[in-house]
Design goal:
This protein is an alpha+beta fold and 465 residues long. It has 16 helices and 17 strands. Mean pLDDT is 93; it is low at 453-465. The structure holds flavin-adenine dinucleotide (FAD).
Length: 465
């Protein structure tokens, strides 16, 4: 049988590659939100590029489906294995090189977490330009594959903007790409940019060369409250003009109440809508931030200058995802809007949409500086796609995107047509066919499955077929 031959090949590549230990495999088969559970026919843990290339080669030879996984923090079931698939994890490929202090760059293997890369950069007063609340688990490979965004996109851009070089193992080409820290390389389309956001459907990231940015000595965090979203929208317009802004996040009262109960604390300011702004500079910031906050005209504000105070204010924003997870299994819609239409979108969610769905608890927060709203719905059935579709269709109709940063994964693959024309989907399929002609990688992720067999609709709640 093809699967047995594949597993035998893996044993021949290295006796350490395969595991069938259910205690190791089981937690990797449920996604972070607990909305989806699949199963894996086995788990392969390559330690280096050679082993990975041999595994992918054997899978092509035997026609075995592979599901790639990094830190398993995907919020769109992109890393959850389907029934007839073997899970391949980057967990053993996590070497981080010493930073290149002249190029201001660092090279790390795919399985290294964002926190591990930052730990290597910190002694040199450097850091990654991308930071996210899942930093202790999210891996470089997963972050490239999803083109992760996070809290500093407003200043440094998303993962694609950090990528200088890449090594990738694809089913058709084997190991390709290079890791030189070249800031400029116009020898055709940039392979790293093509891989960014491809969600593991073109190949598995082995390692990436990334930009490093300086840690700035001055940092101030402001938590502000406002009576309405329209007041916040005006404040954002003003704050975005500050060259020192490095994060601009928003939360609403329902989410802050939940976080307050979760943390057992009371927020230092109170209002209907909250804005968290971070300012960073190599120059003194006190007068500048005081003037910016004053100009933003919040009802109340709290400023923090020291590391502990800043972390405490950030906790109000970053604890949202974990607090919502304690309230139930959330449907997570990660949309972006033209910033000029954010207010209209939020009013629609809190107005007509909420009225049509009185049983749902709605929590909104997000990266306001990037026009990115995370719509969290607690109370809908796991396989209820209609509520997801209503929110995503609205965002698309308003000129937005159905995925600002989490990707399409399996959850949104059937809805890709909301933002991509059939010609654009055909172009994506042509790229997929060039890298993975037999379709062995991450079937059903990003692109709707050709057979429809992996679509999420119609499956029992909480389970992938
Ligand atoms: C608390 C919390 C906060 C979050 N905040 C943010 C945020 O601010 N911004 C943001 O963008 N995301 C955020 N996320 C989502 C998630 O952390 C990101 O999508 C992250 O990039 C996923 O990395 P991972 O290693 O966990 O990948 P996984 O979840 O393991 O996989 C994600 C996708 O990448 C593919 N993949 C994984 N490794 C590789 C590889 N080596 N090569 C090719 N493909 C691969 C998988 O097949 C899958 O399709 C958050 C998640 C949580 C739980």
């Amino acid at each position: 049988m093809a699967l047995a031959r594949f597993l035998r090949s893996c044993e021949e590549i290295s006796p350490r590659l395969l595991t069938a230990d259910p205690d190791i495999i089981a937690p990797l088969c449920t996604d972070w939100t607990r909305r989806m559970t699949g199963k894996a026919l086995g788990l392969v843990r390559p330690s280096n590029e050679e082993e990975l290339a041999a595994v992918v080669g054997a899978a092509v030879e035997e026609g075995v489906q592979l599901q790639l996984q990094g830190g398993n923090t995907s919020l769109v079931a992109g890393a959850t294995p389907l029934g007839d698939t073997v899970l391949v994890t980057s967990a053993r490929m996590r070497a981080v090189q010493e930073p290149d202090l002249v190029s201001l760059s660092i090279t790390a293997e795919a399985g290294a977490t964002a926190a591990e890369v930052n730990a290597a950069l910190a002694p040199h007063r450097l850091k990654l330009g991308v930071d996210l609340a899942s930093r202790d688990s999210a891996t470089i490979g997963g972050m490239v594959a999803t083109n992760a965004g996070g809290i500093h996109v407003v200043r440094y851009g998303s993962m694609r903007a950090q990528l200088l070089g890449i090594r990738l193992v694809t089913p058709a080409q084997g190991a390709i790409g290079r890791l030189s820290p070249l800031y400029k390389d116009n020898t055709g389309p940039h392979l790293a940019a093509i891989a960014a956001g491809s969600e593991g459907t073109f190949g598995m990231v082995v390692a990436a060369a990334l930009r490093a940015v300086p840690v700035l000595s001055e940092s101030v965090v402001a938590l502000m409250s406002f009576p309405s979203f329209s007041a916040v929208a005006e404040a954002v317009r003003r704050i975005r003009l500050s060259p020192a802004v490095s994060a601009l996040e928003f939360m609403t009262a329902s989410g802050m109440d939940l976080v307050s109960r979760h943390l057992g604390r009371t927020p230092p300011v109170a209002g209907a809508v909250y804005l968290l702004a971070e300012f960073e500079s190599a120059f003194p910031l006190l007068d500048h931030v005081a003037a910016v906050v004053d100009d933003a005209s919040p009802s109340t504000s709290a400023l923090a200058f020291d590391r502990r105070g800043r972390a405490e204010l950030w906790r109000w924003r970053e604890a949202h995802t974990e607090a919502i997870a304690t309230a139930g299994i959330a449907h997570k819609m990660d949309v972006s809007l033209p910033i000029s239409r954010l207010e209209e979108f939020v009013e629609w969610v809190e107005g007509p949409f909420a009225a049509d769905n009185p049983d749902l608890h709605i929590y909104l927060f997000g990266h306001l500086g990037d026009g990115n709203v995370h719509v969290n719905l607690v109370g809908a059935e796991s396989d209820d796609l209609a509520t997801d579709e209503a929110v995503l269709s609205k965002a698309a109709a308003m000129g937005g995107s159905i995925s600002a940063e989490h990707g399409i994964g399996r959850l949104k693959a059937p809805l890709l047509h909301l933002v991509r024309t059939s010609s654009e989907i055909a172009a994506l399929r042509a790229l997929k066919d060039a890298f993975d002609p037999d379709g062995i990688l991450n079937s059903g992720v990003l692109l709707p499955s050709r057979t429809g067999g992996h679509a999420i609709s119609g499956v029992a709640p909480g389970r992938l077929a």
